[in-house]
Amino acid sequence: MRVIKTIKEMQANGESVRASGKRISFVPTMGYFHEGHLSLMKRARQVADHVVVSIYVNPTQFGPKEDFSQYPRDFERDAQMAQEVGVDVIFFPSNEEMYPEGYQTYVDVEKVTKNLCGMSRPHHFRGVTTVCCKLFNIVKPHNAVFGKKDFQQLAAIRRMVVDLNLDLEIIGLPTYREQDGLAMSSRNVYLKEEERKSALTLVGALKLAQKLYAEGQTDAALIIDKAKQLIEAAPFTQIDYIKICDASSLEDVHRIEGKTVMALAVRVGKTRLIDNSVLGEEI
Ligand code: AMP
User: Mean pLDDT, to the nearest integer, of 170-175?
Assistant: First the structure.
């Protein structure tokens, strides 16, 4: 496995792999790997000849009061894990490499980024789509693998790829969970033991919504209200949002018909967690 730190070298790698007729699969990450990340890399291994993973904590997707400097990092551990699942190249650039002095170009997907996390993190998705667009041009993949845990991120990336005619396929994979249902996240390491118990109310709320929907309930406000009660009953929780949205436009729906997603963001202690599930699909 190679570790590449410069854009020039990474682009040359893409060129030569393509010239040899091989297909490149790409998994963009911020590192601090867990099984969820590894599930994306394993899929990448299956759908291409050459697997590239980027590890880059992208400053432009963090707000001024967010956890950019505290975000967990452990390159050696990540490299070991990536090697074990057969990754060919880790792209590990510096901020100077990605955003040199004079940088001023951004990709803004306008509509699907407005609701949900876009309400409290106004510049977050602009940072995500910008860095992914740059990474696609640097890595030159045939496909890129993302997790549905970040449902809105995946929707924004898909939209960008269509709108800007980017020549790659986007693959979305299910959320990988702990035994007890908690969605795996690099940020779970922030959780203290008592907070982790409260964090389980996120998946509890999604399961409750699935149950109500399976019983025939289609009133979004009613389901959201019951989910809210469940989460608010647990200590340390503060709800950012709980919403039921159309799964492609990500606009709120009042009545559940067609493909809808329940998405939530909850602060547990100081840690902001997100989760979601498409209503009617197994969690
Ligand atoms: P991150 O490093 O958290 O930015 O995530 C990198 C990629 O891993 C994104 O496509 C995420 O959606 C995906 N991911 C994060 N957590 C999970 C999970 N629990 N299951 C599946 N994919 C995940």
Answer: 98
| Nearest protein Cα to ligand 1, atom 11 | 147
CATH of 2-173, one of 3.40.50.410, 3.40.50.620, 3.40.50.10540, 3.90.1210.10: 3.40.50.620
Mean pLDDT of 171-179: 98
Structure tokens at 72: 């967990």
- Active-site residues: which are they? 37
* Length of the chain measured in residues: 283
Give the model confidence (pLDDT) of 22-41 as tens digits.
999 999 999 999 999 999 99
- pLDDT for the residue 167: 98
Task: Report the atom number in ligand 1 closest to the C-alpha of 32.
Answer: 2
CATH of domain 186-277: 3.30.1300.10
Buried b or exposed e, range 53-67, using 16+ CB within 10 angstroms: bbbbbbebbbeeeee
pLDDT at 82: 98
